[in-house]
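[step 3/7] fold_predict: job queued, chain A
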Amino acid sequence: MDKEKQTDRVQKIPITELVPFKDHPFKVVEDESMLRTTESISMFGVLTPLIARPAEDGKFEIISGHRRAHAAAAVGLTEVPVIVRDMDDDVAKILVVDSNLQRENILPSERAFAYKMKADAMKHQGERTDLQQEGTSVQVAPKLTTAIIGEKDGVSKDTVKRFIRLTNLIPELLDMLDHKKISFNPAVELSYLRPEEQQNLIEAMDFTQAAP
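[step 4/7] structure written:
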């Protein structure tokens, strides 16, 4: 079928032909929200179509609906409704982020990598108007980009920048942040340490009593 004719038409696609979006910043976990999604799909099926784009080998890369696909497979469904759209990487990344940020209970690490993914995609699209000075060591998005992202998500551009800073944390510290063993502001400060310094901090910490 011509790809153009597939656009915005709901199709039934086997779950086995769906693949997750590369570097998807949101985790698919068996939490309470997933349980509710699974129960709903078990009773009513998948009411909201997934969005995907054509991928290699005749498969389709999920842009929106990773959790619905997981829940559908869990209850034994073999196919799900999907809207197939052709889109480039930057457009796909922005849609991945925007379609997931509305979800409840997003982990700080998920939001951090989501903001960074969207900022990078927007910069690549040519929406940069406030380029960083060459040689700066602080890797954050340009002001205009962070303002656009913040306005879309209902937060300030500075909040967006601080979340993006968290992507400089080593996985152990990100995990501690997600599990509320350290709070947001100290985590942002720790992100300015070199990875080896962060690792030394982890090794020196008494996990039962101490936190930055």
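[step 5/7] annotate
The mean pLDDT is 87.
The first strand starts at residue 10 and ends at 14.
exit 0
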